[in-house]
């Protein structure tokens, strides 16, 4: 294996994976993908966590660029950043292609 510098894409993928490294954040991210629209304030209803904890998880996802948030009145509405989702899928797909395992379940 030759020495190569860490690419910006590798750094981004690591940051995205880090943001998804908690089961609650994976659940929130999955819910936002399934809803396929922005959600205002209802995320707390699907999680057995305090509102402040859900907010912290959303902040991690937002800081990683996986989720976008906009303030609408007293609530913040969140939705998946579709470009980031496609980028994440592409990066993971590239890893699978490297391993020769693409398409296997």
TrEMBL record:
Q: Name one GO molecular function term.
A: DNA binding
The answer, when asked if DNA-binding is one of the entry's keywords, is yes
Which Pfam families does the UniProt entry name for this protein?
HTH_20
| Record protein name field | Metalloregulator ArsR/SmtB family transcription factor
Annotated ranges, domain HTH arsR-type = 5-100
Transcription is among the record's keywords: yes
What SUPFAM superfamilies does the database record attribute to this sequence? Winged helix' DNA-binding domain (SSF46785)
Q: Which InterPro entries match?
A: ArsR-like_HTH, HTH_ArsR_DNA-bd_dom, HTH_MetalResp_TranReg, WH-like_DNA-bd_sf, WH_DNA-bd_sf
Which SMART domains does this one have? HTH_ARSR
Q: Which keywords describe this protein according to UniProt?
A: DNA-binding, Transcription, Transcription regulation
Output the PROSITE patterns linked to this UniProt entry.
HTH_ARSR_2
**Origin, by domain of life?**
Bacteria
């Amino acid at each position: 294996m030759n020495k190569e510098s860490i690419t910006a894409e590798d750094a981004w993928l690591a940051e995205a994976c880090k943001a998804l490294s908690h089961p609650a954040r994976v659940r929130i991210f999955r819910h936002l993908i399934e809803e396929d629209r922005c959600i205002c304030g209802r995320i707390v209803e699907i999680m057995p966590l305090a509102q402040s904890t859900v907010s912290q998880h959303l902040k991690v996802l937002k800081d990683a660029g996986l989720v976008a948030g906009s303030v609408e009145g007293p609530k913040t509405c969140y939705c998946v950043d579709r470009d980031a989702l496609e980028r994440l899928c592409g990066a993971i797909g590239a890893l699978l292609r490297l391993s020769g395992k693409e398409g296997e379940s």
